[in-house]
Amino acid sequence: MIKFTKYLLLFLPLTLFGDFFIPIRNDWMVTYSFGLLYYISVLGYFNKSKSLITLKDFVYLFVLLFLCIVPFFQYSFGINVWNIIDYLDISYFKANLIIIIFLVVYSITYKNVKTTFKKSLPISNKSISILKINSISIIIFIYLFSKYNGFTGLSLARNDFESITLSDNNTIHNLIEMTTRTILFFNVISNYFYFKYSKSRNSILLFILSLIMMLIIVNPLNIPRYLLVTFYLPLLLIISNPYKYRPWFKISFVFAVLVVFPLMGVIRTGFDLSNLDILFTVLSTGSFDSHSMLVQGVEYYFVNNFSFGYQLLGSIFFFVPRFIWPTKPVGTGEFLGIEEGFYFTNVSYPFIGEGFANFGFLGVIIFAFFLAIVHKKFDLYFWSKSKFNFDITSLFYLCFIGLTFFMMRGDFLSSFAYTFSIYMIMKSLNKII
């Protein structure tokens, strides 16, 4: 099934051009650069691998959907996300060239690097540990349930995560919110393994209770989509036997990201699904602004020079509050939005562009190199095991899948802060409890 899908996708563009697809904008350099991106990402995502899914696969999937297919339609039909300046064709070509350089360096590094990972602590399933984590989770649940005035307030709680930038004075608040959700998620996982090994009646009740608490507080219908994948995909993979669905597994992600998630966003914002222009509505939403923002960033930094690591400092030292460091850099997406006078500055900026914003083409190579090493480390660690024998690193690995999509979309300040925080919270919980 995977092989059939791969060849179908490889030949699909040849059938669309001319007969069914008549673009209003069709520069040959831009078109061929999008075509090259398309074939690189399709071959990269539908690769021959014994692993069910890897972090590397999600890099290719992100490029395929967010930096290739959707942007090509946006470019071809003149769809303008955030009312960004309609740049010349050469601007799109430069952005695509940066993506291609990133993918080449990433692929070569990932294929050739040899790396190891220190053995991690197993997830505790002792009774005393379960009692502690459940007690903490119940306290958190009661606090958040009362804070948001019950179910009515929780239906609007998405606003706490909708502003995914950590550049304002709410840094501590946002990290606390993420900590509480991570604890509830960790509680569900701990109770599941406790039930798996003890098989007692109390253990199944604890698991059901913890799952209900998480579903109420971390409601999958109103949390950001990267959090939905971060917290609920690991649960699905741990509880079910994903190998039974292997032929459809990668295909389902393409469908989910390209169809289900955008429609969820459209429904949330109240668009009429009976509208015949729904495709253009979906493609023009902020969910697919990655390529537009990359083009914006490339043009800005070509004219105004690079930040030479200054933007990166804001991401590395995300935990420093702004009242201590008033001039701390904001996220690159927000920075560009302010500089270019956007009416809305909570926008993305892809990881691929962060390297260029800091150090130009050299930065693109450096960022690709280090991301490939990190991904290879985690992929080898998780899939070298003969079965799903979970420890803290393995659990974080499954969360890292959703976080990788968030990081690739950006901006880096927010995604790095949340990724690092979730990892440290999990390690701390397992040691303390």
Topology:
Layout: H1 2-16, H2 28-45, H3 55-77, H4 89-112, H5 127-147, H6 150-154, H7 159-162, H8 171-198, H9 201-217, H10 225-239, H11 246-268, H12 278-283, H13 290-304, H14 310-316, H15 332-339, H16 351-359, H17 361-383, H18 392-409, H19 412-432
Helix pairs in contact: 1-2, 2-3, 2-4, 3-4, 3-18, 4-13, 4-17, 5-8, 5-9, 8-9, 8-19, 10-18, 13-16, 14-19, 16-17, 18-19
List keywords for this structure.
about 425 residues; mainly alpha; 2 domains; 19 helices; about 70% helix; about 0% strand; globular
Number of helices: 19
Question: Compute the gyration radius: what is it?
Answer: 22 Å
C-alpha geometry: globular
User: How many strands appear in the DSSP assignment?
Assistant: 0
Low-confidence stretches: 14-21, 159-169
Oligomer: single chain
Distance between the termini: 44 Å
Specify the biggest β-sheet: none
- Beta-strand percentage? under 5%
Tally the structural domains: 2
Which whole number gives the mean pLDDT? 78
> Helical proportion?
55-70%
Topology as a string of helices (H) and strands (E): HHHHHHHHHHHHHHHHHHH
Structural class: mainly alpha
Give a short synopsis of this structure:
The chain has 19 helices and no strands. Mean pLDDT is 78; it is low at 14-21 and 159-169.
Structure overview:
The structure is a single chain. With 433 residues, the chain is mainly α. 69% of the residues lie in helices and 0% in strands. It contains 19 helices and no strands. Helix 4 crosses helix 17 (361-383). The radius of gyration is 22 Å and the shape is globular. The termini are far apart. The relative contact order is 0.15.
